[in-house]
Amino acid sequence: MFHSQTELIEKIMLGEDTTIEFKREMPHRNSLADEIAAFANSQGGVILIGVDDYREIVGLELPELDRVEKTVVEICEDNIEPTVPIFTEKLRIDNKNLLKIEVPRSFFVHKTSNGYFTRQGSSKREMRTDQLARLLQSRSQARIIKFDEQFVPNTNKETLRESLYRQFITENAPEDVIEDLLLKRSLLVQEGQEIRASVAGVLMCHDTPDNYLYNSFIQAVYYRSTEKDANYQIDAKDFKGPLDQQIIDAFKFVQKHNEVSARKDIGRIEQPQYSMRAVFEAIVNAVVHRDYSKSGSKIRLFMFTDRLELSSPGALANTVTIDKLRYSQATRNELLSRLLSEITLDDIGKQVKRHHFLERRGEGVGIILNESEQLSGKTPVYELFNEELRLTIFAAKSLQEDNE
């Protein structure tokens, strides 16, 4: 960045911005660590030591230049987690010595003793919780950081409910080893000197995950209409328990409003609007694959007289496309997938032909498409809208209409 001396001088004349920072002299170690981490967490940039805020090249004495360069390298190794790989260059402009520190955009998210910083305009800013969550998620696309294993601020071991986390650790484990077991399962994570609950830990082992991860619930609404119209809203619920309970509650909501038609031929024939097996798979997929770093929206389940719509925040994971959904097994939240695959189903399991919430065989989308099409004659539709995946399942026509 700014490799020619002419380009660098022109940049100095223009002043500081998102890509460049001036320091008259070597700043405090922690302050420089914050600046370097902010660039690494953003789009990268350059720090020039030996230039003041008025764009004047004041320079450094040669012995000082050597000392500053050595200190900067130590700061990147010792004061930033994980280490930031930088490029340093000693320059001489207008007979004055400068140190150029080039900080590349990182694949990691970096932290200093003062917190997590990003670059905004010509200054660094500490990241808000939602900004940090989004950055962690976006950089996890390279499978470096898994969002569902990240820590949740302002949590600790007590955030997790014992009645909920016990199902994921050794039965009757003594109290003195429980913390270690929860750490091994990534329900707890080490954050500096503190133990925090992970995203998956909060989602699976807290009564109301929405208290910590905003909008991490399912909103369900039933309209006796083909459009969203408050005058025809019959039922509405927000399901805010642990994820497995949210799935069960949403399933029962659809089951409650899944109208069954019947006709008498030789014997009585019944036909529901929706395959509940397909509905179960759809709800599980929405919960497992949603982007929990996106706090602006929740999973939305809308039932109409002619269709069911299920929307989940987040674009498709990795290289998956709409056309590949039937055959893909890629998931955004590996830890959540593992945890749900360990929880057994009771009565609902018989209805949906599953022993666990998730079987991890990659059959879910196929079941949704096949069973729904057999029932209604229409293939369900997956669509992407502004990084939100929406599934539409069409209701089967009433058997009584066939007799009219």
Write a compact overview of the structure shown.
With 404 residues, the protein is α+β, with helices and mostly antiparallel strands. Helices cover 32% and strands 21% of the residues. The protein contains 13 helices and 16 strands.
Overview of the structural elements:
There is one protein chain. With 404 residues, this protein is of the alpha+beta class. It folds into three domains: 5-126, Methyltransferase, Cobalt-precorrin-4 Transmethylase, Domain 2; 146-206, no CATH class; 218-402, Heat Shock Protein 90 (2-Layer Sandwich), CATH 3.30.565. It has helices spanning 5-14, 29-41, 62-78, 129-139, 162-165, 175-184, 199-205, 243-257, 276-289, 334-340, 347-352, 364-376, 399-402, and strands at 20-23, 45-49, 87-93, 96-103, 117-120, 123-126, 188-191, 194-197, 218-223, 233-239, 260-264, 268-272, 299-303, 307-313, 381-384, 388-394. A six-stranded mixed β-sheet has the order 10-9-13-14-16-15. The protein has a four-stranded mixed β-sheet with strand order 1-2-4-3, with helices on both faces. It has a two-stranded antiparallel sheet with strand order 5-6. Helix 2 (29-41) crosses helix 3 (62-78), helix 8 runs antiparallel to helix 9 (276-289) and helix 9 runs antiparallel to helix 12 (364-376).
